[in-house]
Structure formats: structure tokens, C-alpha cells
Amino acid sequence: MFQSLLKEEVSQFGQLKKFPGGTEILQEDSYIKAIPLVLKGSLKVMRTDPQGHEILLYYITPGESCIMSFLGGIHNETSKVKAVVEEDAEILFIPVDKASEWVKKFPEWSDFIFRLYHKRFEELLTAVNAIAFQKLDSRLLQLLKQKSELYKSKEISITHQQLADELGTAREAVSRVIKQMENEGLVKLARNKITLL
């Protein structure tokens, strides 16, 4: 991913940690001391409103980092998002001061950060468009396809409540739409499991 001099510094200053699925590694309103670089597994980045409703913003997969963490960390601001391990993950934590220093020192790190920023911006635009312009059935099918790609499986272990949380809607609405999707032959339902057909 990176050239040798940067690789050496990443190895020297990065701290490797492993986390099981469901672990919250970044909380909203907390200060960011290190930037997560996902090596294995995945993270989901969520936003929560004052009433506790959540919505999925994007996933972070191997070879990627959280641009929101990077921006918050280098400006010494609190996090505007939370990051939760989606599937068991190995994450290399880069100290904020090093991540900031590398932008000036290593062109490939700077390029990496700008590419991430571009990708996340496009994903946020997609999320805003989906919420503003798409019906729940389209958003739900899109989320199931994302999860299928993430897990590399048509069979997704998830509850209706988890889907509702990620879509920022009510569980009853998700259950109604997913039953309709089953009737249309798009999915097959089992207990806490959905298979894309």
C-alpha cells in the first residue's frame, strides 16, 4: 500500500489491535488521539441524533481509514461520528501527530488521505440522496447488497432492528418492507438471517 520509508514509520509508530464484531472503537464527542487504519475486517461509521436514533454513513474496509477521525484529530476537535466494528477487525492505530506530519513528509500519504476524503464525500452524498429521494425499499435493498459485498456472502446475519438502526427508521417499517421483498422473490427470510436471491 505504501512505499518503504512510509511503511517503516507506519510499522514503528502504529499500534496494532484486534476487536470482535460489535465493539465501539470511536464514540461521538470524544477526542481523537489515533487514526484507525483497517487491516482486516470492517467498521461502520454511524451518526446519532439527540434522541438516540442512528444512521449508517459508510463502511471502512481493509486498506482504508476514517477521514472524519483524521480531520477531527488534526484539528483537536471531538468526533462527530461513532465507529463500530462490523466484522472482527485488525486495526492499526496511527498517532494523530504522526498522521498530520506525514501529510507534509510523504506525498503518497497525502494522496491516500485525499483519495479517502473524495471517496467518503461521495458516499455521504449517496447517503443524503438516498434519504431525501429514495423510498425505504430501495434503501433497504441497497444496504443488503452493501452487506453482501462486505461479507462476500448472499446470506446476511442481521436483525430487522439492526437494519432499522442503520437506515435511521422504525423496525416495524423495515419488517413490513422486507416481508414485501420476500413476497416479490428478492430475499428469503429466516430467524436473524436474510438471503439475497
What this model shows, in words?
This protein has 197 residues and is of the alpha+beta class. The protein folds into two domains: 4-132, Jelly Rolls; 135-196, Arc Repressor Mutant, subunit A, CATH 1.10.10.10. The chain is 47% helix and 28% strand. The longest helix has 27 residues, at 107-133. The two termini are 35 Å apart.
Mean pLDDT: 92
CA-CA gap between termini: 35 Å
* Protein structure class: alpha+beta
CATH homology superfamily name of the largest domain: Jelly Rolls
List keywords for this structure.
197 residues, elongated, three-stranded antiparallel β-sheet, alpha+beta
Task: Show the helix and strand layout.
Layout (H helix, E strand, L loop, with lengths): L3 H10 L1 E5 L4 E3 L7 E15 L5 E7 L6 H8 L7 E14 H10 L1 H27 L2 H16 L3 E3 L2 H8 L3 H13 L3 E4 L2 E4 L1
Antiparallel strand pairs: 1-5, 2-5, 3-4, 3-5, 6-8, 7-8
Helix pairs in contact: 3-4, 6-7
Offer a concise description of the structure.
With 197 residues, this protein is of the alpha+beta class. Helix content is 47%, strand content 28%.
